[in-house]
Every structure is written in structure tokens, then in C-alpha cells.
Design goal:
5 helices, mainly alpha, 3-stranded antiparallel sheet
Length: 118
């Protein structure tokens, strides 16, 4: 049997449709006020707002993680990160695909463990 590469993501994204701002803050290791600020700065972050509450989707979490990587790991400024994300190649970003693949592997491993227990 083939062994799957273990995900090194300390906070895998759960298989939910919507996440609260507190959940996203934990998943992305950020403060909630930073998320609210980034919402104003990056128009690509667009949580659903109902009853004065924010609900983020998986693609929002991936985008926030990408922004965090650009700012904290790669040394982009806010304006540089905005330019990068508004560029034509932002849909082809390898880090976002790698993160999505790691998440998928983690979810498949969870399913496999569940099936083994049954």
C-alpha cells in the first residue's frame, strides 16, 4: 500500500462550509482585528455577513493564509501584496495549490482512519 505524505499543516481546515471569525483567526494564527482590517484592505476577502456576523468560506481561509504568507514570510508590503493578488497570475499561485493538496490529503487520511475503524 502506498504511504501518503503527512501534512505538516498544524491547523488543517475542517470540512465545514462556513467558519466564524474566531475559527478563522485560530486556523490562520491571527487576531480577529487583523482579519477585520485585512477585509478592508483586500477586496478579495469577502465573508458572508448575516445578522451582523461574518462567515468565511474555505477559499477565504486559503486566501487569508496566502496573504499572511506574503506579508509575514515573503516580506511583501500591504501595497505589494495587493498588487500581487490583483495580478493575472494569482489564480496559478503554487503555494495555494500546495496548501489545498495538503488539506485534501489530510481529509482523505481522516476518512481512511474512519473507514478502518468501521
Amino acid at each position: 500500500m502506498l504511504e501518503m505524505e503527512q501534512s505538516n499543516d498544524p491547523n488543517p481546515i475542517p470540512g465545514k462550509r462556513y467558519f466564524t471569525i474566531g475559527e478563522v483567526a485560530k486556523l490562520c494564527d491571527l487576531k480577529t482585528h487583523v482579519l477585520r482590517y485585512w477585509e478592508k484592505e483586500f477586496k478579495q476577502i469577502s465573508p458572508v455577513k448575516r445578522n451582523n456576523r461574518r462567515y468565511y468560506q474555505r477559499q477565504d481561509v486559503l486566501l487569508i493564509r496566502q496573504i499572511k504568507s506574503l506579508l509575514h514570510d515573503q516580506g511583501y508590503t500591504l501595497s505589494g501584496a495587493k498588487q500581487y493578488l490583483s495580478g493575472e497570475n494569482n489564480g496559478d499561485d503554487q503555494s495555494q495549490y500546495k496548501q489545498l493538496l495538503r488539506q485534501t490529503i489530510t481529509e482523505l487520511e481522516d476518512i481512511l482512519e474512519t473507514l478502518k475503524r468501521v
